[in-house]
C-alpha cells in the first residue's frame, strides 16, 4: 500500500498514535479492495481513500465483500467494516460517506469513534467540500444558473436504486466550470460541487439539464454511450470525485485534511 496524491494540512508532526503516517501505511495490513489507494491520512486517523470504478463502498448483499473497499465483514448498523486481524484487529473501520460502484474517487473512513461523529455531523451540516469532474454529452447553456436545484425521490428498481425528479428531498449542486471538448460527439468536462448528498444526485441532475454523463447506463444517452465505447473505448461512467476537504476541531485543536485525486478518464 502506498500513499497517492497526499495533501495533509495540519499543525504538529504527522502522527497516528505513536507511528508516523508512512510507518503506519507500511505496517498496516488492511485487506484493501483491488485498486483502492490511501490518498491522505491525518494524525487523528481520518483516512481518505481513492476508489476505482467497479468497487463497492460497502456490500449490498451477502457475498459481495471481495468487491468492496475492504475485503472484510460489514456491519450495516455501525456502518463499519470489521477487521479480523492486523494492528487494528477488533476495531470498526467506519465508512463516513459513499460513492456508487460505477463512480470513482475519494471517500472518507476512520477507526476513531469520536472523529466518526464529528465528520458525519460535518457532512450533515454541509461543512465538507467535495468536487467532482464529469465528462458529459452536450454543452451547458450560457447564462444558465450555476446552482442546480431539484427535488429527488428514490425507489428500488430491479434490485438497485433509482432516483427521479419532481418530488422528495431537495438536491443542490454548484456548477463550478464547464469546458467544451473538441470533436464529435459534442462533449464537455464539468466541475461540480454537490451541496447535498442524495442518491445518484449528480447523474440525474446532469441528465435533466441535457448533459447526460458519458457511460451512465441508468440516466444516460444509451445510443451515444455505445458510439463513444466503439470510437474511444470509454465504457465506464465518467464521474470521479477529485477533491475532498474538511476542517474539524478535536481536543480543542483545529485540523484540516485535503485529499486530491486525478481524474482517470
Can you put this structure into words, describing what you see?
With about 260 residues, this protein is mainly beta. The protein has helices at about 20-25, 115-125, 200-210, 220-230; strands spanning about 10, 15, 20, 35-40, 45-50, 75, 80, 90-95, 105-110, 130-135, 145-155, 160-165, 170-180, 185-195, 240-250, 255-260. The protein has 4 helices and 16 strands. The strands form 2 sheets. Strands 1, 4, 5, 6, 7, 8, 9, 10, 11, 12, 13, 14, 15 and 16 form a 14-stranded mixed β-sheet that branches. Strands 2-3 form a two-stranded antiparallel ribbon. A hairpin with a 4-residue loop joins strand 4 and strand 5.
Give the key terms.
disordered N terminus; Pseudouridine synthase; 4 helices; globular; 2 domains; two-stranded antiparallel sheet; mainly beta; 265 residues; 14-stranded mixed β-sheet
Could you outline the blueprint of secondary structure elements for this entry?
Elements: E1 8-9, E2 15-16, E3 19-20, H1 21-27, E4 37-41, E5 46-51, E6 74-75, E7 80-82, E8 92-95, E9 104-110, H2 113-124, E10 128-137, E11 147-157, E12 160-165, E13 169-181, E14 187-194, H3 201-208, H4 222-232, E15 239-250, E16 253-260
Parallel strand pairs: 9-15
Antiparallel strand pairs: 1-16, 2-3, 4-5, 5-9, 6-7, 7-8, 8-9, 10-14, 10-15, 11-12, 11-13, 13-14, 15-16
Amino acid at each position: 500500500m502506498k500513499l497517492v496524491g497526499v495533501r495533509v494540512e495540519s499543525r504538529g508532526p504527522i502522527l497516528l498514535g505513536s507511528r508516523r503516517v508512512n510507518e503506519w501505511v507500511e505496517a498496516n495490513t488492511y485487506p484493501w479492495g483491488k485498486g483502492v489507494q490511501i490518498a491522505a491520512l491525518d494524525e487523528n486517523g481520518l483516512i481518505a481513500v481513492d476508489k476505482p470504478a467497479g468497487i463497492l463502498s460497502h456490500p449490498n448483499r451477502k457475498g459481495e465483500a471481495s468487491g468492496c473497499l475492504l475485503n472484510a465483514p460489514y456491519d450495516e448498523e455501525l456502518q463499519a467494516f470489521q477487521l479480523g486481524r492486523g494492528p487494528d484487529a477488533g476495531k470498526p473501520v467506519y465508512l463516513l460517506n459513499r460513492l456508487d460502484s460505477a463512480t470513482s474517487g475519494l471517500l472518507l473512513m476512520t477507526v476513531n469513534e469520536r472523529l466518526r461523529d464529528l465528520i458525519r455531523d460535518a457532512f450533515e451540516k454541509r461543512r465538507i467540500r467535495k468536487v467532482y469532474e464529469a465528462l458529459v454529452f452536450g454543452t451547458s447553456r450560457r447564462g444558465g444558473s450555476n446552482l442546480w436545484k431539484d427535488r429527488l425521490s428514490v425507489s428500488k428498481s430491479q434490485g438497485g436504486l433509482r432516483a427521479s425528479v419532481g418530488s422528495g428531498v431537495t438536491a443542490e449542486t454548484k456548477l463550478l466550470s464547464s469546458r467544451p471538448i473538441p470533436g464529435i460527439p459534442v462533449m464537455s468536462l464539468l466541475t461540480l460541487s454537490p451541496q447535498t448528498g442524495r442518491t445518484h444526485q449528480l447523474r440525474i441532475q446532469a441528465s435533466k439539464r441535457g448533459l447526460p454523463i458519458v457511460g451512465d447506463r441508468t440516466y444516460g444517452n444509451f445510443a451515444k454511450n455505445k458510439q463513444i465505447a466503439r470510437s474511444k473505448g470509454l465504457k465506464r461512467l465518467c464521474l470521479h470525485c477529485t477533491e475532498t476537504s474538511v476542517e474539524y476541531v478535536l481536543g480543542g485543536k483545529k485540523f484540516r485534511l485535503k485529499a486530491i485525486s486525478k481524474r482517470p478518464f
